[in-house]
Design brief:
1 helix; about 5% helix; mainly beta
Length: about 300
């Protein structure tokens, strides 16, 4: 009996907060809706709640608010899911595939880490006749910079290159001004970081390598080499890059890539092959670091 009441209570809360709640993984699966709500209509003023993978591909869709809660993937093979406000809930991490969303008003709850990992394209609108411009709302009482979106390619913004319509990377050059703070692009324009008013940009970016073969690029052979799309971040010194290597890797081949601007953190025994240069290596006590073959070390400039 107690169980029954608890479930009832949860349902009531949800129904009050959101007009339409995702049921399945596709639009066609429909929505759990409050009374008289036509959640399948393509243009409305309702609020939608998502907490699991969702695929949308019909016609352009527009609603008032979309709440995203949890870690999941949003995919569109063609059309867009738009909302006047995208509300990303605490500790959520979304992966957008294809051109899922036009982002305008982005609200973020506190303690947020990455809101989006964008594969392919993203539209961040400038002011238009019928469309609000892209803004980020600082979480209430937040006083530190936080990461908003990670891109696997710095051309993610440049779809159809119409600068009157949406922001391009150069708009973020000295921080894109918003009422709550500034948005920056760092790490080769692959990471969007937001700093609230009065807080200076912190440019340090930490990446972890999960594979044995170093590559500057996130994608390659299917298994992702780094923990985020904006990794590896080595970018002419504008970003303070820190590279960790996953605990269970005993060897890493750097393939003679020159990583001049990265600080490498070594916290377990490891052999590095074809390793050319590095800004600095930090090695924990009692750790054996071997760099081989020695003859390939041409610009061995790190301070240990
Ligand atoms: C949404 O609400 C606004 C303001 O109340 C109204 O002008 C508009 O027509 C509504 N849109 C839809 C699709 O119902
Ligand atoms: C849009 O959502 C906000 C917040 O939930 C609400 O206050 C507002 O009335 C909604 N707009 C329309 C036109 O329904
Ligand atoms: C969600 O999609 C991702 C790939 O985009 C997949 O790896 C994962 O298993 C899916 N999860 C569910 C619950 O379907
Ligand atoms: C964006 O959303 C925030 C929070 O809901 C709201 O206060 C603000 O008025 C919205 N701005 C625009 C331009 O819609
Ligand atoms: C590095 O990434 C590029 C571009 O994605 C890919 O073509 C190449 O095969 C990758 N190299 C390795 C060693 O994985």
């Amino acid at each position: 009996m107690l169980m029954f009441y608890i479930i009832m209570l949860i349902n009531c809360i949800n129904a009050e907060h959101y007009d339409c709640i995702q049921i399945g993984h596709e639009f066609e699966d429909g929505f759990e809706s409050g009374k008289d709500k036509q959640c399948e209509s393509l243009s409305n003023n309702y609020s939608y709640y998502f907490n699991k993978n969702f695929t949308y591909s019909d016609l352009a869709f527009n609603c008032n608010r979309t709440y995203l809660d949890g870690k999941f993937t949003m995919t569109s093979s063609f059309d867009y899911w738009d909302a006047n406000v995208i509300e990303v809930m605490d500790k959520s991490q979304l992966l957008y595939m294809e051109d899922f969303i036009h982002i305008m008003n982005l609200s973020l709850e506190k303690n947020l880490y990455y809101f989006g990992l964008v594969i392919d394209y993203i539209h961040l609108f400038k002011d238009g006749e019928s469309i609000n411009k892209f803004i980020i709302n600082n979480p209430v009482n937040n006083k530190r910079c936080f990461d908003v979106t990670s891109f696997n390619d710095n051309s993610a913004f440049e779809i159809n290159k119409n600068p009157n319509d949406h922001y391009l990377p150069e708009d973020f050059k000295n921080g894109l001004d918003m009422s709550d703070g500034k948005a920056y692009l760092i790490s080769n324009n692959r990471l969007m970081r937001f700093c609230p008013n009065g807080i200076d940009l912190d440019t340090s970016v930490t990446c972890t390598m999960n594979g044995n073969n170093y590559n500057l690029s996130y994608s390659g052979n299917g298994n992702q080499l780094f923990n985020y799309p904006h990794c590896q971040c080595d970018d002419s010194g504008e970003t303070e890059c820190i590279l960790n290597i996953q605990q269970n890797l005993n060897t890493v081949d750097f393939n003679n890539n020159i990583i001049k601007y990265t600080t490498l953190n070594i916290d377990h025994d490891i052999i590095l092959y074809n390793f050319i240069s590095d800004k600095q290596i930090n090695v924990n006590d009692d750790i054996t670091l071997l760099i081989a073959p020695v003859s390939s070390i041409k610009e061995y400039t790190q301070k240990i």
